[in-house]
Specification:
This protein is an alpha+beta fold and about 160 residues long. It is built from six helices and seven strands.
Length: about 160
């Protein structure tokens, strides 16, 4: 497995990874219309924009993209950052790829400059992020109106 910075040529394949992961892994926690809306907000142009606003990485198994993750400043802050768009194809989960993505993001300059890093997590992902040292923001363990559970790590 190789992890590298995203390029615009990766956008279509990355969008497919996100769509498949959402439909397969998140369908038990979220209604279909919420999953489809989430897929729409991770379109090719959205992913290209994300890569321009922060740092976005892809994980490749040969020529195949199997995972992704990004980090950016949190609402323009220099002391807070946010992890975004972290997905691993269902058939590649449980193989350490998610950990590799988080470790890469935690070595990125956006992470290193931050006092606090937030992640809008899916319900399913919360135990994984806890293992990676993230805690529930303000102790809130339930999803917000966007369906995300807000987690954070303070440095």
């Amino acid at each position: 497995m190789e992890i590298r910075l995203f390029s615009p040529a990766d956008a279509a394949q990355t969008a497919d990874v996100i769509a498949k992961t959402l439909r397969v892994c998140n369908s038990r926690d979220y209604p279909p219309e919420m999953i489809e809306e989430n897929i729409r907000t991770h379109s090719v142009p959205d992913l290209i924009r994300l890569s321009q606003e922060g740092h976005f990485y892809v994980v490749c198994d040969g020529d195949r993209i199997v995972g992704c993750g990004g980090i950016a400043g949190y609402w323009g802050s220099l002391t807070e950052s946010i992890l975004l768009t972290i997905f691993v194809l269902p058939e590649y989960q449980g193989k350490g790829i998610g950990r590799q993505i988080i470790e890469t993001l935690e070595q990125d300059e956006y992470f290193l400059r931050a006092d606090r890093v937030e992640i809008p997590a899916s319900i399913l992902a919360c135990p994984f992020y806890q293992k990676m040292g993230y805690t529930y923001k303000n102790g809130v363990t339930s999803p917000d109106e966007e369906g995300c559970v807000r987690m954070e790590k303070r440095r």
